[in-house]
From TrEMBL:
Top-level taxon in the UniProt lineage: Bacteria
Keyword Transmembrane part of the UniProt annotation: yes
Residue ranges crossing the lipid bilayer per the database entry: 15-38
Protein name, UniProt field: Uncharacterized protein
Record keywords: Membrane, Transmembrane, Transmembrane helix
Length: 148
């Protein structure tokens, strides 16, 4: 069994390289046109201002308005996508542990303020999800463990 040697000349290879480069540039251009840019709307800025005021009133650190509008937009972003789903709740609960890895991981009593930020976001951005999430938070064992 023998293998034939390649017989393409430099001109043929240049044509192939040019076609591939053109296709890549065209795909990049199409991707840039189709990429959904997040534009800061008036509604997003108003909700961001509302959230900043609520966080400030609660005594929490407040991020910049641009950060909030970029992350949450006008619909709450990923937080409001499905805050009451099992996976979302499991992710939240996995953050309320003692920090040990593997079999040493144990749930702990967390401070009352741990979920306060998420409650504020839900209240402002997706109030229809708030009642069910408040019921879930009510089942958590919390206390004033961090103090002032």
């Amino acid at each position: 069994m023998t293998t034939e040697t390649e017989t393409s000349n430099p001109r043929e290879r240049m044509i192939i390289y040019a076609v591939v480069a053109f296709v890549v540039v065209l795909l990049v251009f199409i991707a840039l046109l189709l990429f959904p840019y997040v534009s800061s709307s008036g509604e997003a800025e108003a909700k961001a201002d509302q959230l900043i005021a609520a966080l400030d009133e609660a005594g929490a650190r407040t991020p910049a308005r641009e950060q909030i509008t970029r992350v949450l937009g006008d619909d709450g972003g990923a937080i409001c996508a499905n805050p009451n789903a099992a996976l979302t709740r499991a992710t939240l609960l996995s953050q309320m542990v003692n920090g040990a890895g593997g079999p040493g991981t144990r749930p702990v009593v967390v401070d009352d303020r741990v979920v306060q930020g998420e409650l504020l976001v839900l209240e402002i951005y997706c109030p229809e999800e708030l009642a069910e999430f408040q019921q879930f938070v009510g089942t958590l064992e919390t206390s004033d463990v961090a103090g002032e």
